[in-house]
Amino acid sequence: MSSTAPGRTGPLAPAAVALAFWVTMAGTTVPTPLYPLYQHAFGFSSFMVTVIFAVYALGVVAGLLSLGRLSDQIGRRPVMLAALLLAAAAAGLFEAADSLPWLLAGRVLSGFGAALMTGSATAALLDLAPAEHRLRAQTLALGANMGGLAGGTLLAGLLAEWAGSPLRLPWTVTLALTAVALLGLLAVPETVPAEVRAANKFRLRLQPLRVPPGIRPAFVRAALAGGAGFAVTGVLTAVSGLFLATVLDLRNHALTGLVVAVAFLSIAVGQLLARVLPPVRALPLACAGLVLAAALIALALLTGTLPPLLLGACVNGLAGGTAIGTGLGVINGGVPPHQRGEAISTFFAVLFSMLSVPVIGVGVLIQATGLRTAGVTFSGVVALLAVAIAAGLVRRPRATGSVAAPLAEEA
Questions:
Q1: Label partner for 292 (CA 20 to 30 A): which of 20, 25, 97, 323?
Q2: What is this structure's pTM?
Q3: pLDDT at residue number 19
């Protein structure tokens, strides 16, 4: 397998990598508008819907911790191919599913595939770009990632609403797109030089979660704020269909897909905003946005109306994305290059942990108190967390301004 110099492959290789990235992430959100259908078909509770969603995030965390450096060790292309094969296996399990264990297994495989693809495809796009176009490559990676998450749920919702076989056709389309992406990757050259791969010998071990002491306070605040936004997005992803059907009496799968797509696209926009906002303003604005989003979502639950839910999903995505971009900026500005991979893996492990655990908590609350009470309680907890983070910023303004200096290009 030959290596290639950055920027000498033309536009086809980056396009093929971006397509593979998009398809893998799209597959992770295809189940979102289908959960009520699976619940009816297989007879499980609302709590199990949240568990099915949460095992995906746990799969991502496990993949990040065990295989986060794999593309540095064996190359970008084989890792991206493995991620696509895992995505195809997950889609196959969902298409053939006739009981709950199939769905759980599919979600675990999907989480591993997403973990492998996120790091390897982002690195490959950066490798393929000349130095003057690195920011463009990072934007392409962000678009493929969040665009895939938004596109998967929207595509599945549209197919489930207006085409036949709602539990089969979305997965057939996903498998077809995966096959196209696999063919495209075969034309992508390896970008990790052979001598680097030889030096980075493969060793399967858990990657330690470490944050350099110099950035720890700013890192923790950005990770908690970004994690709060992720937690809200996770709950929206898991129970939007249930909310629309039971509270608003809107049994429209395309609408469920739209609500979640708005949330993910807004996260992408929020990360772009973090590039242009002054670092000392970005996280306070993100915290204010999280409080506003929580209030809007609580309003939607209490009044049984759709517009506050859509607006809340949008504001939450913008706020969470801004916090994530700020956190990546803290890492880029305050961590030596040889420690950045470890710090970024730690950052995303925190985010995905906060994506999964609160969702299960909301599932337990739904069982005990009902959807409205559980949702309003969760919104209140998110708002309190955002206020606590903002209070920490007020107490330590100098520390915030010093570490979050130049925002990361990785934002």
A1: 25
A2: 0.87
A3: 97
Decide: 187 and 16 in contact? Cβ < 8 Å: yes
- The span from the CA of 142 to the CA of 266, in Å, is 12
Dig out the tokens for 19 from the structure.
Answer: 């397509």
Is residue 134 within a helix (H) or strand (E), and if so which, with residue range? helix 134-162
Paired tokens of 268:
């992408």
Single out the residue of 231, 224, 221, 411 nearest to residue 322, CA to CA: 411
Which is it for the CA torsion 278, 281, 286, 292, positive or negative?
negative
Distance of CA 397 to the CA centre of its chain: 29
Q: If pLDDT is split at 50, 70 and 90, which confidence band does 201 have?
A: low
Give the number of residues written for the chain. 411
CB atoms within 10 A of CB 17: 32
Please report the pLDDT score of residue 402 as a whole number.
Answer: 39
Average pLDDT over the chain reads 85
Pairwise CA distance, residues 301 & 310, whole Å: 12
How much is the average pLDDT of 40-48?
90
Extract the tokens encoding 224: 């908690």
Nearest Cα neighbor of 261 from 359, 155, 353 is 155
Higher per-residue confidence, 75 vs 149: 149
Q: Give the percent of the chain with pLDDT over 90.
A: 49
**Matching residue, tokens 């995030």:** 57
pLDDT in tens, 384-411: 999 999 888 776 544 444 333 333 333 3
Asked if 353 and 61 count as a contact pair (C-beta separation under 8 A), the reply is yes
Cα gap 120→182, rounded to integer Å: 15
The pLDDT of residue 333 is above 80: no
Whether the CB-CB separation of 124 and 17 falls below 8 Å is answered with: yes
With DSSP H G I counted as helix, E B as strand and the rest as coil, what are the percentages for the chain, rounded to 5? 80, 0, 20
Nearest to 219 by CA among 306, 139, 283: 283
> Left if phi > 0, otherwise alpha if psi is -120 to 50, otherwise beta: which for 351?
alpha
Q: Which residues pair with 3 in a beta bridge?
A: 190
- Kindly state the percentage of the chain with pLDDT values over 70: 88
φ/ψ (deg, to 5) at 190: -75, 135
Report how far apart, in Å, the C-alpha atoms of 104 and of each of 51, 187, 358 are. 8, 33, 18
Residue type, 244: L
